[in-house]
């Protein structure tokens, strides 16, 4: 009986010690806030700057910005040891000054390569996203359904020296609009922010240079491509290509 009690005591002691070790070795968990800022080749843009024709794109078109909102999703933190993929999405709405968010998931401290998806991948785009429905962000069924990736709207001075509206709307590239649309290629894309040291609750600034949507590698002529871009698969692919140069890492605080 004494041997049994001694053995039981040893087991309890080992379990207690292991429990202490697990607590002691538990890694600190932190939250990351993403703050999206916007500029035109370095000049800060907020909703205060909207509705005035004051920007000149690379093609020489004078234009205004009246609305800008877009979706980011699937944030990934990775290094040589592990990867954390946050299966989330968020609508960045500059018009309503809704430009930051903090994912509910925390991650262990460390140095990570951080990336996210501009828009929604095809799996996410096929889901019923209630909050995006309420924002009238849907794409019509005859264009494949799902959601916009971005809505950038404003006016420009056309070749007749008159104000004209433009709707630079990014969606999944679609051909053959109607009951059986087809998709020539994916037009969501990955944005790699590079390595970030995350050793405390941190705020990561992500800068969007709006001018780049009209610049590189495709020079954008608003007189030719200004509206009805959603059913234009070629235009969507040009947007996808120009979008590769739009985002960069800003300050990390």
TrEMBL record:
Record carries keyword Hydrolase: no
InterPro entries in alphabetical order: MbnP-like_dom
Swiss-Prot/TrEMBL keywords: Signal
Secretion signal span: 1-19
Superkingdom of the organism of origin: Bacteria
Copper-binding protein MbnP-like domain sequence ranges: 33-225
Protein name, per record: Copper-binding protein MbnP-like domain-containing protein
Species in which this protein is naturally found: Winogradskyella vincentii
Lineage, highest ranks first: Bacteria, Pseudomonadati, Bacteroidota, Flavobacteriia, Flavobacteriales
